[in-house]
Amino acid sequence: MANAISNLGPDRVSLGVTPTLWWNDDFPLIDIGIPFEQCVSEMALAGFQGCSIGHKYPTDPAVLKKALDLRGLKVSEPWVSTYFTIGEEERTVQNFKRQLEFLEEVGGEDIVVAEFGLSSHLQPIPVFKHRPEFTEEQWKLLTDGLNKIGELAAEKGMRLCYHHHMGTGVQTAEDVDTLMAGTNPEHVHLLFDTGHLRFAGDDPLTTAQKHKQRIKHVHLKNVRQPVVDKVKSNHLSFQEGILEGVFTVPGDPAGAIDFKPILSTLDEAGYEGWLVVEAEQHPATAHPLTYAKMARGYLTEVLGW
Predict the structure, then answer these.
(1) Does pLDDT of 2 surpass 60?
(2) Which of helix, strand or coil describes residue 57?
(3) What is the CATH code of the structural domain delimited by 13-303?
(4) Burial call 75-96: b when 16+ CB within 10 Å, e when fewer
(5) What are phi and psi of 162, to 5 degrees?
(6) Could you tell me the pTM of the whole model?
(7) What is the pairing mode between strands 79-82 and 74-77?
């Protein structure tokens, strides 16, 4: 491990994994019946320290915390969908406040959001063709809204981390640039997702280098480039892309992303926080524990622990 990125050690980063290896939270029918307790037990068995929250998790924070504590796991992040661009600020803010309270009870620092107003990714339509492109007014609604809830998070000692996402108005590297330029760097941070940027057609390393000081949360997701190309050429939906196997984990030889220069960039920027493995795959064709261990083994090799 002489070439390991030794500065990204356990004193600076925590390694997490999302339950989307075990089931899909956007498309609940992508599921083979794996229960919550098996999922989190396998996360711990694979060597991870934490996880994001999925739809099968207990909704009682005390019950969830007990189950995670038993396995030595922490919450890396909850998810909040925002709807500022379609005029649903009040509903969005109230839901965000509820999630802040939930996060406070289970213990955690980062809260992840993505703007789903006008999003196409949940619909059975071509994900590239129908992604929204925001007007100036919609961008202002979004950035003003994010600044507002980012301040609410900061008041609680937490960090709002924005997740750019396929099929939404913040999909490309250019969109990320616009979002970062229009938001308060003290209150709105970037969740950097390698897979979504590569899927969108951009180089994640370039975005990491450009916004390294704004990145406070990371999703390490890989893509199979032939499937990305198929999604584009055959006009597939986001769900169809998942079923075709567009996503995989770091360490999979079929993946197209080189994570080492990305992690080196984060290291040089003094990154501290979560590195979360994510890959929406169908558990019927991609055995969850196998892929979780594959990713953890790769991170051991690259990080040296």
Answers:
(1) no
(2) coil
(3) 3.20.20.150
(4) bbbbbbbbbbbbebbeebbebb
(5) -85, 130
(6) 0.98
(7) unpaired
